[in-house]
Amino acid sequence: MTTPDIFLQQIINGLSLGAMYALLALGFTLVYGILELINFAHFNVFMVASFVAMAVLQGLGISGQSEVLTGFALAGALVLAFAVTMVAAGLLGVAIERVALRPLRNVRGTAAMITTIGVSFILFNVVLLTLGADSKNFPNPLPVVRWQIGGAVLQLREVLIWAIALVLMVALHLFVNRSKLGKAMRATAQDAEAARMMGIDVDRVIVTAFFLGSALAGAAALIFGLYYNFTSFLIGYTAGLRAFTAAVLGGIGSVPGAMIGGVLIGLIEALGGQIFEVRWTDVIIFSILVLVLVFAPTGLFGRDVASRS
Amino acid sequence: MNKSDRAAPRQGTLGSETFAWLRRGSPFYGIDPARRARFLVALVTVAAVLFPLIIRNDANIDSAANALAFAALALGLNIVVGMAGLLDLGYAAFFAIGAYAYGIAASWQIAPEWSSFWEPFRYLGLVDRFQDSGGDVVHFQISFWLMLPIAAGIAAFFGVLFGAPTLRLRGDYLAIVTLGFGEIVPIIARNTPSVTNGAMGLNGVAAPQLFGWSFGVDATPYYYVGLALVAFLIFTSQRLKSSRIGRAWMAIREDEIAAAAMGVNRVRLKLLAFATGAAFAGATGALYVAKLQTAAPEMFEFSVSVMILVMVVFGGIGSVWGVVVGAIILQVLQSWFLPDSTQWLHALGRLIGVEWLQQVELARSTQLIFGLILVAMMLYRREGLIPATRKVRMPRLAERPALAAAPPGETERLPRLGDFGWRGEGPLLEISELTVRFGGLVALRSVELTMPARSILAVIGPNGSGKSTLFNAVTGLVAQNSGTIRFAGSGIERAPPHVVLARGMARTFQNIRLFPNLTVLENVMIGMHARLHTGTVGALLRLPRTRREEEEARERCIDILSLFGNGLLLRLDHVVSGLSYANRRRVEIARALASGPKLLLLDEPTAGMDPAETLELAQQIEILHQHGLSIVLIEHKLDVVVSLADNVIVLDHGEKIAEGPPDAVRRDEGVIRAYLGRSATLA
Amino acid sequence: MPELLAFRGVDTYYGDLHVLKSVDYTIGQGEIVCLLGGNAAGKSTTMKTIMGVVTPARGEIRYEGKSLAGVSVAERVRRGIAPVLEARRLFPRMTVYENLEMGAYTRDRGPEFDADLERVYELFPRVKERLRQLAGTLSGGEQQMVAIGRALMARPKLLCMDEPSMGLSPLFVEQVFDIVRAINAQGTTIFMVEQNANMALSIAHRAYVLQTGQVVLSGPAAELRENEMIRSAYLGEMKMA
User: Fold this and answer.
1) Contact (CB<8Å) B1/A191
2) Which of A48, B28, B159, C6 could make a disulfide contact with B275, Cβ separation 3.0–4.6 Å?
3) Which of residues 147-206 of C touch A (CB under 8 A)?
């Protein structure tokens, strides 16, 4: 491959990673926008969801990468896998909010954030203890279809990931901007007390934010499995920290920011891995996190902090 | 969301009642608390020293030594999280840095090529020249006792290096940045084999030696070193906590803005907390590696940071003894209780013939249990096993007459207030062309103001007219867009809040920003931060000079509080969040006065006070004026303004629309129109 | 005049802080009642208590003859209590139209919604011109129009206004008060917290004066304007006039 080909290839890879990070970043941003809470449990909701996705695909009789489905069978399997994984992850997010976070809603300071760390730790260890520390082969029913673009290769897998992520993000965008509940969500994020006084049920809005954010993490988890063909109890921290960086880069609290931030982080990971060595990827991404927070804490689309009088 | 309007957190509802009967039933009930504490410390010390002699089981002594290492780490994290309120999720990184520092200095695995550069170090006995097949190499052989402080110093250095850019961030952002830092330190250790031997880790780290005797692999000497380290760190934590430094940390934890306005240099003190915590971890890292004689990247991952955090939360965030007890209990749980319970479960399984019970391995679920403990503590007992602050209960109704009858003699302290006057030339405060914008909104537009020393100036105007913004701009809490501010002869327009305070300008806030979980006396003492000098070393040594300074500061605070009669003097040890509204206002004024200001800015001091309290406060402000203090007063009650002020300025929509003596201003047509609206035509 | 809203011995707390102390108010149907008092006297807490954001520790609030205990904020809005919040509190990054929609959050869309929208446009022609603009970009006066319009979208029987004159230019304050009168003339009862005492007393029927959480004075607005106690206790500023 020539140098431009390598770059094209890395952009293709980066967009797929970016789609996954964007979906995961949306979960951070939806919750942060409303509660100003960094939800560390989100890291491992994603990880748990990847095991749910694996179980669903295995339940459909798919194991490994050799059993390929096509046509309606493939579409049906994917729709079912995404639906079940997203709903399961969403319910997990809602359960976490109800059990561990709602009682701390009015407590000042870092108590709620520390609690999410505890919840994350619990999820992590439950999976480790019940399913073991070894990496699991993730079933993948996608046929291998390749298109040659110059020296670079575009696979069906990539196109599918982009399409699914795009559909989900457009759907979220429409929900937030067009539906009544979505508008209530934005109103709550901008001024929770005023929203409450309008008769908006803030509890319901918060539950919705947790459900949607976690469901999108579920979608990201399935994408992770289809992309890497494995899952493990360890995937939450790395992916989660990158997705959080994406949310911060885009401006935490901003939905379009999380989408664009995710894609940027995906591209940085892919191209950075090309330019430097892959083992330094986390260091690069962490440096971006610190630089953005220190020098441009509002990110690309951050809210104007002084806007509230 | 308007945070100030939320209900104040209620603490300890479950715990305080659960443990109350225990306390009453204890043999120490009713004994002087200070003596009781000394007795307990002596008892614990004797038990800890005798422990290896009684136990005599090397595995158990080894576990105890590990428990001490974790107690030391918990003490360090407690400085950062508990005292200064900075949530650090990557604390294990500093543990790793200290560990690797000793690992490199006492392992022969890292052996650079010999050059003349190393000659002086060989002369000092720190390195040795060793003949290797590929040429001569350097063998480090730095003494453990030397490396213990050096490891602490290196970790502290990295703490400052990492903290300097990030400690300005909001608390939740800081948490995630520290988490990232904690993630990358092991990655760097893994990826730089020339320094750390990469993923393999450093092995064969030399054991410490004392008078030619090597510690070897026996756990007992490490236990005693650990015990000494923990004792030293407890001592350090206690001394710092009760010093000027500790008070400033707690002020930052409680309300950063108010701390800055009371003269606390936030960045410097946060860095100090971070560096101190890192130093604790660095020293512990050196000890831990000496004991294990190996250092590998996976020893310092995120889960270690979380376990230390759980120990701090479990024991009591901010409580020195609490975190030690928390660390030891959790370590006991991990090393003894879980393995023992596993044995019992297996036996039970064999007895009743249940297969899965025979295979349970509770020790593997340590981290799960830690996670459950963390969540449970947050939900049910946030202040931990041994809370850092005990609320002094308010006097019962039956006891109140006794309080009221307490001797009012304290008022004779009044003359001791001293003189607050400024003796310089020219006006005390001179503001010109001051403009402040928030986004598109102009909060202040070209405001001009001149104020002579020893005068009272009132600022009036409708809500939202820019009065509080004027205070914020003058005291450095909001950045101005243009204009100059001269105070006591020098420009302060770019000065940060703590510098403004140090120059002699103190303030109160419209919606009272006391440090809610600290006592009356602590709040007022923080006001003196800029006037006291004790630093870290002074706090640790507590020389007569430091003790005298603290004692004088305390006396000074009591003198100031006596301005408000003896109501507050009786409540010196009460947590301010339990005081009445009027008393909180008074404490806030006392806190500002404690800084020895030349100019006091009062933002609606009588808001929320009834007419009697308002009158009383007006008289007290007049007393302060007689002591030479200059005062700027934002006030809505115009009778207060008229009785106190020498001069009045009127703000409306960020512009000064009138200025003059109270009588002239209240007849000004423009003022009446802007301030009183259409009613002017009615009156 | 039949009673619309009444406080009977209401006490509220924020944590340890006792804010309202055994407060009684009565607001009759069709009245304009104003609540006067200095900062931190408990005026905004009164508003929050009416809306159900703050729960009273003791006492009862009755609305249309029924107790409001345990009634959610949403249900209160649905029954016709709508707030105009202190400092407007619009949703700054939503459009003017979306802000109005949020005012009608508890109602279903339908012909009534459109009729109410028309009524708001009629009262505030300027609002109609700015429907697609983000609320945060409006001037203070325009924001106040949207804030009142947003409350009217709930089709309120009782409009609770918290300091509608705050931060507005004198000319605009008069306009706002004219509109308040007009809304009242159409049959909406108004309970208004104000600092601008003279102005408020000039349009109100009755008034209460709140001081450190207690009602110290109440009566017809015209009488209160003459009352010496108001002048000394709260309306220090009236001395200026």
Assistant:
1) yes
2) B159
3) 150, 154, 167
pTM of structure: 0.89
Q: What is the largest CA-CA distance in chain C?
A: 52
Continuous segment of H or E residues that includes residue B460: strand B456-460
DSSP class of B504: T
Q: Which residues in chain B come in under a pLDDT of 70?
A: 1-31, 390-415, 672-683
Residues in chain C, pLDDT under 70: 228-241
Residues of B in contact with A103 (CB under 8 A): 379
**Euclidean distance between CA atoms B69 and B50, whole angstroms:** 18
Of residues B7, B608, B679, nearest to C241 (C-beta): B679
Each residue of B16-56: pLDDT tens digit? 455 555 555 555 556 677 788 888 889 999 999 999 888 88
Distances (CA, A) of A297 to A250, A302, B3, B282, C23: 10, 8, 21, 31, 46
| Beta carbons of A186 and C150 less than 8 Å apart | no
pLDDT in tens, A53-69: 999 999 998 888 888 88
CA separation (Å) from A191 to A32, A124, A254, B2?
A: 13, 34, 15, 9
**Would you call A199 and C78 a contact, using CB atoms and an 8 Å cutoff?**
yes
> At A109, which amino acid appears?
G
Mutation pick from A42, A121, A126, A191 vs chain B, by most beta carbons of B within 10 Å, is: A121
β-pair partners for B659: B649
3-state SS track over B97-154 = HHHHHHHHHCCCCCCCECCHHHHHHHHCCCEEEEEECCEEEEEECCCHHHHHHHHHHH
Among residues A242, A266, A244, A252, which one has the least CA distance to residue A300?
A252
Give the chain B residue whose CA is nearest to the CA of A103. B379
Name the helix (H) or strand (E) containing C190: strand C189-194
User: Which residues of chain C are within 8 Å of residue A195 when distances are taken between CB atoms?
Assistant: 91, 102
What's the ipTM? 0.92
Count CA atoms within 13 Å of residue A152 on its CB side: 15
Partners of B460 in the beta sheet?
B650
Is residue B179 a contact partner of residue B171, using CB atoms and an 8 Å limit?
no
Helix (H) or strand (E) segment spanning residue A258: helix A255-275
Distance in Å, alpha carbon of C193 to nearest chain B alpha carbon: 13
Instruction: Return the pLDDT at B25.
Output: 55
Q: In whole angstroms, what is the distance from residue C220 CA to residue C197 CA?
A: 14
How many CB pairs below 8 Å do chains A and C form together? 71
How far is Cα B555 from Cα A75, in angstroms, rounded to an integer?
A: 79
Q: What is the pLDDT of residues C81-129, one digit of tens each?
A: 999 998 889 999 999 999 999 999 998 888 889 999 999 999 999 999 9
